[in-house]
Amino acid sequence: MAVSLLQRILQESEGMGSAELRVARFVSANPSDVIHMSMARLSQECAVSDPTIMRFCRRFDFQGYQDFKLHLAQSLVPSAPFAYEQIVPDDSIQNVVRKTARNSLNAIQRLLEDLEPQQVDEGARLLNAASWVGIYASGISEITALDAEHKFQRLGMRCAALIGRKKQWLHAETSRPSEVVLIFSQSGHTKQMVDIATAARAKGARVLSITAAQSPLAQVSDVLISVLPYDRTELMTPLASRLNHHLVVNMLVTAIAMTSGSEFPDQLPALDFWQTEKI
Description:
Blueprint: H1 5-12, H2 18-29, H3 31-34, H4 39-46, H5 50-59, H6 65-75, H7 93-114, H8 117-129, E1 132-136, H9 142-154, E2 159-162, H10 165-172, E3 179-184, H11 191-202, E4 206-211, H12 216-219, E5 223-226, H13 242-259, H14 268-271
Parallel strand pairs: 1-2, 1-3, 3-4, 4-5
């Protein structure tokens, strides 16, 4: 995996002197501003000399400040393969904000690069033909399940988000051939979700999973929408790859409306009373 310039700056900052370290910290916290700054302005902001800025640039094998700024600007553009900037305990709040936003943008960019539109189309057609859709998830993916329930019901679909092991097993074991089981799982390795998919298929229901390709859950699903998970996570930030599951839900909602030939039927007033009761 390619290491971005900002990641290199973070990795090498421990070996810098105090003057270069001020430059590293300022660049890391304000990369979008730095690409528009002159060397004199950056020197002033960091309270260092112009030669210090030049030494800093050459540390990363750039011929000069302009070359450094060009590569810095390129590092701010989302690209595949996915680049993840880990948040560390001594990060400033500026870095927390920047890294969280950048990681989210990179996750969305990677989804655009990797998602197979045909899988979304196949999933939408399967859901549209179902007499009822059971939406399954565990852990933080339950939020996505509830979001899907809300949006599918706005289309007039018969569906329910099933939260909790007992409720999930009750419905999975009484599934019917005309029904679809929709499962959200980031890793595809959660045993509970794999067992539910197996049980529902045994009763004749079809399983649509939004999960990682080649995972145990993917292997027991009838239809797969493959979404790559993060390679690593951390405790201090929300998992940005969850955004991609929410985006897939939005894609399915639009595709279902188009597949059914409707004018985007919407039961919003019935579900969102606040739309009509605002003060």
